[in-house]
Amino acid sequence: MKKIVIFPGWSLKCSMFEKFLKGMDVCPIELFHSNRDFFQNIDVKMPKDCIILGFSLGSLVALSKHGDAEKLILISPFARFLEDKNYPGMKKANLRAMTILARTDLGKALSMFYSFTEFEVELEKKFKKEYIQNCIKGLNFLQKADERETLKEIDVDVHIFFAKDDNFIKKEQIDYLKKNLKKCYMHEFFGGHFFFLKDKRFEGELKHAIQD
After folding, report:
1. pTM listed for this prediction
2. Within this chain, do residues 152 and 61 fall inside the same structural domain, yes or no?
3. What is the rounded distance in angstroms from the CA atom of residue 58 to the CA atom of residue 42?
4. Predicted local confidence at residue 80, as pLDDT
5. 10, 64, 52, 17: which is closest to 32 by C-alpha?
C-alpha cells in the first residue's frame, strides 16, 4: 500500500480524513496545528510515489506537489481560490477582510470564513500563538496561490470529490479542473463543502479511488 499524504483545509486538522483511512499508511501534514511554520510544512519532502490527498486549501498544495505523486485525491478543490478575470472565486475584498480580522480576532475570522459552508467550527477559548500565525499565513497563501498553469503538467490520475450544492466554491471552479486535467475522474455527491462528513458513500468511493 502506498503512503497517503494528507493536506487539510484552512485551520483544520488531518484527523478529519484519517478516520476514513484506517489500516492504511497515512502521513498527515498538519499545516496549522503545528509548532512549525505554515510554509515549512508545505515544503516538507514528500515520500516517493505517494498518494496525495488535499482538501480545499490542501488541494492547492496537492496540485503543486504532483511531481511527487502517483495519484492525487482532491476534495472540494480549486486551482485558484480568488476570483480573477474570466475565473470565478471568492471576492478579493472578502478574503482581505478576513485576513485583517484574523490578526485581531481569529475566532471571528474562523466563524466568518466557514459561514459560507455547513461546517460548525469549534472555537477554543485561547488559540496558540503558532496556530494563529499559521492561520494568517494560510489566508495569505489563499490570496496568492494559483495552480491553473500547473494543471497542464499533471500526468497522474486525479480523482475529484465534490458536492453539487457547495456554496463555498463555484461549479465553474470544478469544471475548470475537469477541463484542464488530462486524467480526471469525477465523484459527485450531495451536500456542501463538507459533504464527506454526512454522505455515507464517500468512504467507500475514497477507498476505491485509492486502491484502483
Report:
1. 0.96
2. yes
3. 9
4. 98
5. 10
56 and 152 belong to one structural domain: yes
- 6 forms beta bridges with 28, 53
Which has the closest alpha carbon to 124: 101, 105, 138, 96?
Answer: 105
Write out the DSSP string of 164-190.
Answer: TT-SSS-HHHHHHHHHH-SSEEEEEES
DSSP line for 65-121? TGGGEEEEEEES--SBSB-BTTB--B-HHHHHHHHHHHHH-HHHHHHHHHTTSS--P
**What residues make up the domain containing 130?**
92-141
- Residue-wise pLDDT for 141-160, tens only, equals 999 999 999 999 999 999 99
Shared-domain flag, residues 118 and 134: yes
Which residue's C-alpha cell is 475566532? 107
Look up residue 43 and give its DSSP letter.
T
Q: How far apart are CA 2 and CA 62, in angstroms?
A: 16
CA 56 to CA 8: how far, in whole Å?
7
What's the number of domains the chain is made of? 2
Instruction: Return d(Cα 163, Cα 192) in angstroms, integer.
Output: 6
Tell whether 202 and 156 lie within a shared domain: yes
| Predicted confidence (pLDDT) per residue in 109-118, tens digit | 999 898 888 8
CATH classification of the domain holding 73: 3.40.50.1820
Torsion angle, CA of 22/186/171/107, rounded to 10 degrees? 10
